[in-house]
Amino acid sequence: MFEINDWFPVWLSLKTAVISIIIVSLVGIPLARLMEKYPFRGRDAVESLLTLPLVLPPSVVGYGLLILIGKNGPLGRLAAEMGLTLVFSWAAVVLAATVVSFPLMYRSARAAFAGVNPNLEKAARTLGAGEARVFFTVSLPLAWPGIMSGLVLAFARALGEFGATLMVAGNIPGRTQTIPLAIYYAVETGRQSTVNGLVAIITIFCFVLIFLVNRWSNSKNLHV
């Protein structure tokens, strides 16, 4: 039996995942391009730092964020001066989801840019195109299938984030309780029908999303 009396965790998780993906895209795609095309000393160390949340336990990532945005942290003090509180807020939910999902999109985007034929970019420059135009008309369209795959994985990761969110945002019903946290709380309180409903929703949603992207990717390959 499925029973969901409170749909807030569903809407909060979807809203958080969407905003996280927007942030990850705006930051990660240009950064992946720069890291791939413009080598510099210390690049391996920087890339290791960018992908570190991928291998760290979520609780460790959450603790690091708590140090950063807590009342004694640099961002926490700055927010306090502006009359804002970051911990145990929706902003903390978004931050946790963004940090843990970023490495998945970044690695996919960098691999996609690495697969772009540099001769095509050189040809565009020879014809007078500037770097910005080369990026938007050549590099990005060619790398887009790989970037899209990374975005889907990052979206699913943001949707299912648990450990880091619990550390920095808590499990506050009607405020910071996402689907994974609601499932955990429902299990703890013995509301099995609610658990079944939430598990079904997040599983079906992620399956449909990945299915559609795989189908789109396969159709693109057939036309190549």
Summed up:
The protein has 224 residues and is mainly α. The protein has 10 helices and no strands.
* Proportion of beta-strand residues: under 5%
Helix/sheet category: mainly alpha
- Termini Cα gap: 46 Å
Number of strands: 0
Largest sheet data: none
Please give the count of helices.
10
Reading the helices and strands in chain order gives: HHHHHHHHHH
Low-pLDDT runs of 5+ residues are: none
Dominant shape: globular
How would you sum up this structure, described in words?
The protein is mainly α and 224 residues long. It contains ten helices and no strands.
Please specify the SSE layout and strand pairing.
Layout: H1 8-37, H2 43-51, H3 58-69, H4 74-81, H5 90-114, H6 118-126, H7 131-159, H8 163-169, H9 179-188, H10 192-222
